[in-house]
Amino acid sequence: MTSGVERDGPTKPYKMTFVFPDGEPDIVVDVDPDKLPCQRDGLSGSVLDVALGAGIAVDHACGGVCACSTCHVVVQAGFDSCNESSDREEEELDYAPGLTPNSRLGCQCVPDGSIDVVVKVPSWNRNYVKEAHH
Q: CA-CA 20 to 30 A from 105: which of 7, 64, 121, 132?
């Protein structure tokens, strides 16, 4: 755990796979470091940034500024390629349900791209109202 020092983002392309527990198909996103940030919420290259950029709705009540725990995800593979969590992130994670040793806030978790990453999005984290296709 660090006191807020961020690791640099990815320097080469990699894949981030999003796994959903409710029977939804997995979604694989090709992450291109030259196209980061994907949008404006969360740290550049974070799980939340990549998800939202790919049209995957991950709830994030605070707008991705590490002020809540709604974007809680579980990094199932590639955990060691992610930046270390800050004290602030650890404090917010204390409020998240279903914590595991590989729990992270999607807005703060930035993989370095050295290996592919698999992220489980818990069912309580899906904001179905925002997921309607237009």
A: 132
Q: Which CATH number fits domain 14-129: 3.90.1300.10, 3.40.50.970, 3.30.360.10, 3.10.20.30?
A: 3.10.20.30
Q: What is the pLDDT along the chain (134 residues), one digit of tens a residue?
A: 333 444 578 889 999 999 998 788 999 999 999 999 999 999 999 999 999 999 998 999 999 999 999 999 999 999 999 999 999 999 999 999 999 999 999 999 999 999 999 999 987 665 544 444 33
Tell me 70's DSSP state.
T
Q: Which of 76, 60, 77, 75 is nearest to 109 (CA)?
A: 75
